[in-house]
## 1
Amino acid sequence: MVAIIILNYNNPTITLKCFESIEQFNTAPCKYIFVDNASTDDSVSVLDSYFRKNEKSRYVKYVEGDAATEKLQ
C-alpha cells in the first residue's frame, strides 16, 4: 500500500483537484493524508465537508492532540 500526503495552505480547491486527479488515474491501493499548514481561510471546513460527503467510508479526521494511533490503522 502507498501513502500519499497532500499539503494544503489556503486553497482547498487546488487540494481537491489534486486528490481527484490522483483518484482518476490511480490503480494501486493507497491511503491519503491531507495536512493543512495553518490556513487562515476556511480550507479545513471545506475539505472536511467534501470528505464527509464524498468519502464517508474512508474518511477519518485527525485534529492535533487526538490519539492518532487508533484512527490511522
Note: The mean pLDDT is 86.
## 2
Amino acid sequence: MHKILRQRQVSEITGIGRAGLYNLTDPRNRSYDPTFPRPIKLGLRAVGYIEAEIMAWIDQQASGH
C-alpha cells in the first residue's frame, strides 16, 4: 500500500516551497524537472504525492543523477 504525502509534507521533506513544487512539474517553466514525481489528484482542490516516489527522487538528487 502506498502512503500519500500532501504538498506541505513534501515541502517539509524536500525543502522546496509550494511555488517551487509547481515549477518542477510545469513543462513551461525553466525549473521544470521531468524526473520529479507527478502529483496525483485527491479531490477538486487537493493533490498528493506518493511517498516512495518522492524518496526515490531525493535519493537520485543526492547521488548526482
Note: The beta strands are 4-6, 40-41, 47-50.
## 3
Amino acid sequence: MKAIIAVENKEGTESKVDNRFGRANYFVTYDLETDQIDAVVENKFRNGQHGVGIEVANFVVQSGCKLAIGAKPGPKAESILKLGKIEFFIVENCNVKQALDMYRKKLK
C-alpha cells in the first residue's frame, strides 16, 4: 500500500509532518510494502486563495495512494478523501518515520 504524507521539508523520513495538510510545503509518497520513499513532490496548491484543501484532496485521490497521513484536513477535503476511499491517519509533532511507526503500531 502506498501512503502520502504532508511534510514541511525535503529531508526524507526525517521530514517534519506539516501541521497544515492542505498547505503543506511538500508531499512524500511512501511504499509501505518496500519501506521506501517513492517521491517527494512540491505542493503546487499551497499558495492558492480558495479551495486549497479540495485541490489537495483531489490530488491525493488521483495519486493512487490509499493512505494519507498528516494534520486533520478541512471538512470539504475530508469528504473528498472519504469518497475516494482514502484512509486518513492524523498525526502531530512528528517526522515521517515516527508517523509511519505510529500507523503500524495502530494496525497491531
Note: The first strand starts at residue 2 and ends at 7.
